[in-house]
Structure formats: C-alpha cells, structure tokens
What does this fold into?
Amino acid sequence: MTVVRRNKVSNKKVNVKLEKQSRIGDSGRVKKETGRRKIKREPLDTIAVKQEEFSEEDLKNLKLLGLTISKFRTRCSRLLKGFEQKPESVQFEIPTTDLKRKPKLRYRPPNGTILDISKLDFDRPLEDQIELSDVYFLHHAITYSKRVVMVIGAGVSVGAGIPDFRSSNGLFQGLATKSSGSGKNLFDYNVFRSDGSIKKFESMIHKLYTLSNECDPTYYHHMIDKISEQGRLLRLYTQNIDCLDVQLPHLKTKIPLTFHKPYPKCIQLHGNIQLMNCSKCRYITQLNETFFKKAPNTEGRRLIVRCPECQEMNKVRDIAGKRLQNEGILRPRIVLYNEFHPDGEIIGSITESDIKSRPDCLIVTGTTLKIPGVRRLVKEMARSVHANKGYVIWVNIDPPTQSIVDYVEYFDLLVIGSCQMVPGLVSLYDYVYKPKKRRRKVNTKVETLKSEKIRVA
Ligand SMILES: [Zn+2]
It folds into this structure.
C-alpha cells in the first residue's frame, strides 16, 4: 500500500510505501510499528481490521453507532493505546481536572437508572457490555463535581480484606451463639451486661483491630483521597471504624471533633477501632496489643477496664479528704447500637453546614443505609444536591431496597457491582471513550449519546 505525502522541506509530493508493520499515526505521519505496540489480548486484536474485512452487517452496526470506519479506527487505536499505557498505578487514578471550568452535563439518566458493572470485563469494549451514556454520567459526576459528599460503609473495606458485618461470611458469623443471639448483638450496648458477652466482644475487637492494622486502603479509598487532593471533596462520612480511610493524607479527621471550623475532611460516624476512651472523663488513649494481654488487677478482663485517669482522680480526692466518685470504664471508642452518640451534636452541625455549602454530588457507597441517622443524612444531602442540579449516585453490590428508594427519592444512577471497579471504569472512560476536545466542536458527544439511545430502541 502506498500513500502520498508532501516532503516538509521541498514541499514536493512523494510516495511513501507503507510496510506491513507500519501504520498511519494520529498526526498523519507514518510511524514504524514497534514491538511495544503489539497487544496480545485476543478480543482487541480483531479490532485492527482492514476496510475490506468489514462485513455488511459490521458496517450497518457502525452506522447505528454513528461512526464512520475512520472514526471507529481512531477510537480503536485510542482503546489500544489506553490498554498499552496502563501501568497498574495509572489505571486506577481518576483524571485530573481543570477546576475553573465545569463542562455542561449533556445527559442525565432517568431517576433510578441501573448501571450493572458486576460482570464488567475491562479487556472487552465497554459499549458491548454497558450503556456508555451512563458511564458518561458517572465519569462526569466523579471528575467534574466541585463539592463532593461521600457516604461510605463496610462494602468499601471488603476489597481490603475486612469482612462486611452483615454478609454471610461477615464479621458477625462465627460469633453468633444461642445465648448471644445474632453476632449483631455484640455491637449492642447491652454487651457490657455480662462477663461472657464482654469476652466475646473483646475477641471480636481484637480481630477487627488486627485486620485494621494489616489491611491497606483500597482503590476506592485512594480515589476519594485523590478527589480530596484536587480540592473537590466537601466531606467524607464514613461508617467504618477500621481507619483505612483516615490514614490517607487528604482524608484526615480530628478526634474528638470540635465545633471549630474548618471541620476535618473525614467524619467517622461510628468511632474508631484504634482508640480507647473513658465514658465518664473523656480520657482518650491509643489501643494497642497490651490491652489484649492479661494484666493484673483487671478482674480477669483485658480490654474493658476501669479508667486509669478516673482512678488517679479518685486517689487525689482521697488524699484531699473528698468524697470518691464513680469511675468510668475505658473501652474502644466505637459507637454501639442502642447507645447515645457522643459526637452526635457536632456531626449534626457539620451536616447542616455541608448542606448550606451547596454540594453538587453525593455518592453513597458500600452501605445498605440500615442505620436511621445515616439514612436521614443521605436523604437531606440528596435533596440539597438535587436542588443544586447535582448528581446522586448509589454504588453497592446490591441495589437499594424499595423502602430506601422511596425514602431518599433522588437516585440518578445505581451502580451495581464492586465499588473497586469504579476508579478503573472512570479512568478507562476518560482515557478511551471521552470525546476529544477537538471533536467536541462537531458535537460528537451528543452524537454518541444519541446513538446509544438508538441502540436502546
Ligand atoms: Zn475516666
């Protein structure tokens, strides 16, 4: 095959013979095919087809997609390029954005649209598996929103190796007995009523504490951290006590929370497994392995002990001849069921301030919203986000129950599948499928979306 090119110096026409392994690059210049460009992935190899190899049906499909052969080729070469230049670290990084300009949203899925990514295979073209228009919306929300509010639950940490509380192989399993009922009871305030249940509680805390130290933050945690680094995270509300989130550099929290602004980026709704505190004098100390070893004078208990600070105080009072006071209990700084939330009031005022800051995106991830307080927070936040024409997205392995859908009212998109796929999906879309700036002039984006609709019809 030969093509005609102009010599840049003499401006004369020259015939350039294309060798078998050459191809015309995006810039129009002839590029030598290097070994690095060859991709061994099976489904993608079939993309590099010649024009005469398109069957009539293929051409019809292309027409339906609103693509010409050359457009299709460009897209494929970008797809190949995307896979080629994908070191592990880049693949899961969300794209950096220009904060000054937020592109106009060109497509909003109908309320409650489901985007099922549970069986998504990144090695196959996305358009064969899911609706690209929904991915466009997800990408737009995560990449361009300026005041993102995230609400996360145990589902986000499952990818790190910390079991979910409610699932069949979750933390509660193996702890449930006839006497203690379901394992959930171990997270109930009544656990402190008997020595037997305290011992079980201690072993569960030990398990969780060890896991928390051994496990690393997941891709999804890193994605949230990246959004925060870009200055676009308004707040992360976490129900997790494993501290995988707060150990990231841009998701720090403050303990205890105070009414002083600015509030920390991450709000731990249910406490923190790494800390112990006294229920009476608010003394806080770091939890460590020594708490799990038997110590003298602790009535056989290891973890749940009398507060040393309160004891010290009583000694002083004793010397001063004052009446002794009740001593508090030093226990893990986590909020149990049926327990008054020590930071409830502060969290309430932080939520209120966030709603006033006009958030433009709410992403609820890895939680079933079983806790009434969190459910209310999501509802109020979702209403505020929608009032600002923002985006409300649900990400979980299961869709929300009907009662949750009815209660929250606004869910633009329900992403069903592992949340760990989301960063990869967004970056892949950004890299491969997002229409280029040059093409935006001819409204390719709208064209693509239209063609998506045709496919649905
Ligand atoms: Zn105390």
